[in-house]
TrEMBL record, chain A:
It comes from the Bacteria. This is ABC transporter ATP-binding protein. The chain crosses the membrane at residues 21-44, 310-332, 353-380, 400-423. Residues 20-215 form the MacB-like periplasmic core domain. GO terms for cellular component: plasma membrane. It is found in: Cell membrane. It is a multi-pass membrane protein. Keywords: ATP-binding, Cell membrane, Membrane, Nucleotide-binding, Transmembrane, Transmembrane helix. It comes from Alteromonas halophila. Residues 314-426 form the ABC3 transporter permease C-terminal domain. InterPro entries: ABC3_permease_C (IPR003838), MacB_PCD (IPR025857), Macrolide_Exporter_MacB (IPR050250). Signal peptide: none annotated. GO terms for molecular function: ATP binding; transmembrane transporter activity.
TrEMBL record, chain B:
Keywords: ATP-binding, Nucleotide-binding, Transport. GO terms for molecular function: ATP binding; ATP hydrolysis activity; transmembrane transporter activity. It comes from Alteromonas halophila. Residues 2-232 form the ABC transporter domain. Gene3D superfamilies: P-loop containing nucleotide triphosphate hydrolases. This is Phosphonate ABC transporter ATP-binding protein. The keyword Iron-sulfur does not apply. Belongs to the ABC transporter superfamily. Macrolide exporter (TC 3.A.1.122) family. PROSITE patterns: ABC_TRANSPORTER_1, ABC_TRANSPORTER_2. One of its GO terms (cellular component) is plasma membrane.
Automatic annotation (TrEMBL), chain C:
Belongs to the ABC-4 integral membrane protein family. Residues 290-401 form the ABC3 transporter permease C-terminal domain. One of its GO terms (molecular function) is transmembrane transporter activity. Pfam families: FtsX, MacB_PCD. It is a multi-pass membrane protein. Keywords: Cell membrane, Membrane, Transmembrane, Transmembrane helix. The keyword Thylakoid does not apply. The keyword Transmembrane helix applies. This is ABC transporter permease.
Length: 437, 232, 408
């Protein structure tokens, strides 16, 4: 029976080619617009580390200006001071923990033929690598013994390894960074985390760092600040040490707390730490410390851009217009065929048979529109790449679930559009149209 | 009232020339009730279309109420139709989405009358066909005979000099047909010229004069015998 | 012939066919909602993009020089670089600077007119330049004096105090001293970073901060400093038409002059503007495309539905023609019918438009719609509807009146 309906549907579509094309186009455009924006939003808001996003917590302490919050209404600062980051690290109260900072330095390859270049640095503790499941191509991270009295060791990205060492296993070799010789202990494989959840204080859709080195190298080499540095009061005194002792925030910290008990205990620890600091005359604001798991933190930092959400809503309304459009066109189309329905009913077709026949036709249009819509989605994503530049290229890839979603959405949309007209068609009484009008 | 002299109408396609009317001549005087009969394909409908200014003709002369219509443009023809001619169609041609009142209103709107004037005429003409109490009904809610009465009311509302009826009883049973015919005769007696196209000789006999058309020509023109059964 | 607008009969006929009319009205309502809000966002973003940085953007480029190795003497390399740059034919002027306007990265501080921790400060961007800054950035000193070479001091890498004099933009002067004419701000003392006094010695016409999304974008402060940093930026202003040639030449010349450094991030201000405003220009492009597509879809929908109505009503149209309707009267009928459906759509659409705008204000920090966008949107929608219906209406008018006598 379905085959028969399918044949009737193709016939009917061929009978009104322009109209059918218009309906397909409407659905394709609606689906294309929706899927493009859904893809962007989906990837922006996707969970970058699903298996342990509930165990990783971002640490916030409210060390800000007693007279005004860091952000309205009463948000604690999004980063830590050097003093607090190092104090919390030394306490070692979590299962795993890492404070972090970003910086930049010149890399001088030993090979004279390779030009020196500027590399982005991430300063972190040894726990960083197991906490965030970084994929290693060669070697591994450094040991915790290299953290506190920082050893001259680095983990380098695949790109840097390709550039400096021609892609060979460079573990154990020496790399000059910021004028000092470092020993390579590990080479990362391609590591794409979208969003780059572990540091969203700068662009959350940027690539990971070129070089990772122990956190205390910041002090050892007086490395410059990258990312955002915010101060609510000027450092007291001059020089690098004054900055490190100041109330300026430039450091991030993550802890791994696999159980609720550990989480509660860590929050208690943070609060007692702040109370202790209050006694020293710091932290004049009311207690306002926070532990946020990965998804909560991403939401708090509004990683999904407002513009992307506005576009999503616009696209959904767009799809609605396309569906309304299709309903209107189908109604007209079906109303023209009322004599056909009356005849079929007269010779024994049941209402549900008529309904199925007409719904098959709309579903066919929907599938065609959906396939065209997928093409338009790819086009739309290319357009987004073109408009926003390369930094979003990680954002705009279709995966299998999205393709299936697109087809389903379009069939659903067209069936939704087809239901009412098909139902109306079933209301035509048999033989009502058999007389001439 | 209506005067056609040597009128001909030729339909041309790439392959054939069809003469729908040839040397067609007919004169209808003011106040006459004339029937036009003939077999199908004889040119009855073409005559009706030309007489009603719905179609143009190829050659000859046609004067309606003293006016030669050949040179009129579309707008002038529309206006003439609207003001001088009332149409009654075989399938009534009521507008299904409009109620009776609005249906009768259609030609009056095109005449550009004031609302009050229109209202008066609509009520009067619906009164005349005996359907004043059903103004708000839709055509589908009426019987065929009633629908044709509405169509007659619509034709009368514009107060035409000349009524063109195309098989007015073709879709009606005999009882309804008789009442519609009676109505037409009433109208004729009030002074309106009527030309009725029909294939039914019985009906033709109820008119003052019958014109028999065959192969696009007037073959026989005679006053039909008045039958005793005429509904007065 | 007088015109009789058949609004009443059309309305009554439409009420017999509510769904079709309602579908178009809804489409028009949503289209209107999207279009008005989209145009509003586009106009707002265009206004943002139209703001001038104050710099001679078309003829300016900049680069970063990062020295390395223990032998690198930043101070002398900078002096030599600046001498070389300023001596290059085609260069109007060049300056060492800590941050590039509208580039997204820079320094900011808080200024106060009185000392005290509990007094709110006013934020400003900080640019460190020498006496060539005014020329290189294409600024005008509209009150007071430009820096002299003797004002310029050496700033070390971790030095956090400030020189005693500064120039500020007119906008900053007027916000710091709202009751004073900007010219009279010259000679006044402001406090930077809480309590460090700085005397204003000059007012400049206009210079934007590095962050285009900042509400203090027009606030900038220039201090006379030479930065003793191993990694530093130069901003170079060229004569018209010389920029692209000089970019390549300067990059090679500087790299050759001192091998132990990296010349990087060589870029024009035009490209910087493009990058900084990319989010906005992308939004404008996308919304424009959505609007065009939406209007097309809605218009095609109207064309399609009207065409169907016309073919469904052919007999009726023929009858109307027979009853005396002129061709223009038939066209008018369909136009009027569409106008009435549009009106319903517009009433719905106006409510939806305001609703969507309120949602955008509530959740996405957009601004509230100006009232005149609604009548403008109504005009556009009516125009679209009327244009869309014109084709089918013209075809309807071609229906021969003889159709009335044809039995189906």
């Amino acid at each position: 029976m379905f085959a028969y309906y399918l044949r009737l549907a193709t016939k009917s579509i061929r009978r009104n080619p322009y109209l059918s094309l218009l309906m397909m186009l409407a659905i394709a455009l609606g689906i294309g617009a929706c899927m493009t924006t859904i893809t962007v939003n989906y990837i922006m808001s996707s969970n970058p580390i699903p298996h342990k996003s509930d165990d990783l917590y971002y640490v916030q302490l409210d060390s800000w200006d007693p007279y005004s919050p860091f952000r309205e209404p009463n948000e604690p600062p999004d980063q830590l001071t050097w003093r607090d980051a190092t104090n919390l690290m030394e306490a070692k109260r979590a299962h795993r923990q890492t404070a972090m900072a970003t910086s930049g330095a010149v890399v001088e390859p030993a090979d004279q033929d390779i030009n020196p270049f500027m590399a982005s640095l991430r300063l972190n503790f040894s726990d960083f690598f197991p906490m965030f499941d970084t994929p290693f191509l060669y070697g591994s991270g450094w040991g915790s013994e290299d953290d506190n009295d920082p050893a001259y060791v680095v983990v380098i990205s695949k790109d840097v390894n390709d550039r400096v060492f021609g892609g060979e296993n460079s573990v154990g070799r020496t790399l000059t960074v910021a004028g000092k010789p470092f020993r390579v202990v590990g080479v990362l494989d391609t590591w794409i985390v979208v969003p780059r959840f572990y540091d969203v204080t700068t662009n959350a859709f940027q690539d990971t760092a070129d070089i990772f080195m122990p956190f205390y190298m910041k002090r050892e080499l007086e490395l410059p600040n990258s990312g955002n540095t915010n101060c609510w009061k000027s450092p007291e005194g001059e020089g690098f040490t004054a900055f490190l002792q100041s109330e300026c925030i430039n450091f991030q910290m993550w802890v791994e707390l696999p159980s609720d008990g550990e989480r509660a205990a860590y929050l208690d620890f943070m609060n007692s730490y702040v109370e202790q600091q209050k006694a020293l005359g710091r932290f004049e604001r009311p207690l306002n410390n926070r532990l946020s798991d990965v998804m909560t933190w991403l939401e708090n930092q509004q990683v999904v851009a407002d513009d992307a959400q506005i576009m999503l809503w616009v696209a959904l309304l767009f799809l609605l217009v396309c569906i309304l459009n299709t309903i209107g066109l189908l109604l007209s189309k079906f109303s023209q065929r009322s004599s056909d329905v009356a005849l079929r009913r007269a010779i024994g077709a049941s209402r549900s048979a008529i309904f199925a026949q007409y719904l098959t036709e709309t579903a066919l249009i929907g599938v065609a529109g959906g396939i065209a819509g997928l093409g338009l989605t790819l086009l739309g994503l290319e357009g987004i790449k073109l408009l926003y530049g390369d930094f979003v290229s990680n954002l705009v890839a279709l995966d299998i679930p999205l393709v299936i979603a697109a087809i389903l959405l379009s069939v659903l949309a067209s069936m939704l559009a087809g239901c009412y007209p098909a139902w109306r068609a079933t209301l035509i009484a048999p033989a009502s149209q058999l007389k001439t009008q | 009232m209506l005067s056609m002299t040597n009128l001909s109408k030729v339909f041309r396609t790439e392959l054939v020339e069809t003469h729908a009317l040839r040397d067609f001549s007919l004169h209808v005087d003011e106040g006459e009730f004339v029937s036009v009969t003939g077999p199908s394909g004889s040119g009855k409908t073409t005559f009706l279309n030309i007489a009603g200014l719905l179609e143009t003709y190829t050659s000859g002369d046609y004067t309606l109420d003293g006016q030669n219509v050949f040179t009129l443009n579309d707008r002038q023809r529309s206006r003439l139709r609207n003001e001088k001619i009332g149409f009654i169609f075989q399938s009534f041609n009521l507008i299904p989405d409009l109620n009776l009142y609005d249906n009768v209103d259609v030609p009056l709107r095109y005449r550009g009358m004031t609302a009050g004037d229109r209202h008066q005429r609509i009520c009067d003409s619906l009164e005349q066909v005996g359907l004043a109490n059903r103004m708000k009904h839709l055509p589908a809610q009426l019987s065929g005979g009633q629908q044709q009465r509405v169509a007659i009311a619509r034709a009368l509302a514009g107060d035409p000099r000349f009524l063109l009826a195309d098989e007015p009883t073709g879709n009606l049973d005999s009882q309804m047909a008789a009442s519609v015919m009676g109505l037409l005769q009433d109208i004729n007696q009030q002074g309106t010229t009527i030309v009725m196209v029909t294939h039914d000789p019985e009906l033709a006999r109820q008119t003052q004069r019958n014109v028999y058309v065959k192969d696009g020509r007037v073959c026989d023109e005679a006053a039909p015998v008045q039958l005793a059964t005429v509904n007065e | 012939m007088t015109h009789n607008w058949e609004t009443g009969p059309i309305l009554r006929a439409m009420s017999r066919n509510k769904v079709g009319a309602l579908l178009i009205a809804l489409q028009i309502a949503i289209t209107m909602t999207i279009i008005i809000n989209a145009i509003f966002i586009i106009v707002e973003r265009s206004a943002l993009m139209g703001r001038e940085s104050g710099v001679d953007e078309a003829n300016t480029f900049y680069l970063t020089s990062t020295g390395f190795g223990s032998a690198f003497n930043a101070s002398s390399v900078i002096d030599e670089d600046l001498r070389r740059l300023r001596g290059t034919p085609g260069v109007v002027d060049a300056v060492q600077i800590n941050a590039i306007p509208i580039s997204g990265g820079g320094w900011s501080m808080s200024l106060k007119t009185e000392t005290g921790a509990d007094i709110d400060g006013i934020g400003t961007a900080n640019y460190f330049v020498d006496e060539h800054g005014v020329d290189a950035l294409d600024l005008q000193v509209i009150a007071g004096e430009n820096f002299t070479a003797s004002d310029v001091r050496l700033r070390g890498r971790n030095q956090s105090d400030w020189p005693p004099v500064a120039m500020i933009t007119r906008a900053l002067a007027e916000n710091l001293f709202p009751d004073t004419n900007y010219a009279d701000v010259v000679g006044k003392t402001v406090y930077i970073g809480n309590d460090e006094p700085v005397t204003v010695t000059g007012i400049i016409d206009k210079l934007q901060a590095p962050w285009i999304g900042w509400d203090r974008l027009e606030h900038a402060m220039l201090t006379p400093e030479k930065m003793d940093f191993s990694s530093t930026r130069y901003l170079i202003r060229t004569e018209p038409g010389q920029r692209d040639r000089l970019m390549a030449e300067v990059e090679t010349a500087l790299a050759d002059a001192y091998p132990n450094r990296i010349i990087r991030d060589v870029d024009t201000l035009t490209a910087t503007r493009e990058r900084s405003y990319r989010r906005h220009s992308a939004m404008i492009t996308i919304l424009t495309a959505v609007m065009v597509l939406l209007c097309t879809i809605t218009a095609l929908g109207i064309v399609g539905l009207t065409s169907f109505n016309v073919s469904r009503r052919r007999k009726q149209i023929g009858t109307r023609r027979a009853l005396g309707a002129t061709k223009p009267a038939i066209i008018r009928y369909f136009m009027l019918e569409n106008l009435m459906i549009c009106t319903l759509g517009i009433v719905l659409g106006s409510a939806l438009t305001v609703g969507l705008n309120m949602a955008l204000v509530q959740w996405f920090n957009q601004t509230a719609l100006d009232w005149f966008y609604i009548p403008a949107g109504i005009g556009v929608l009516i125009l679209i509807g009327q244009l869309a219906v014109l084709g089918p209406a013209l075809r309807a008018a071609q229906t021969p009146p003889a159709l009335a006598t044809r039995t189906v």
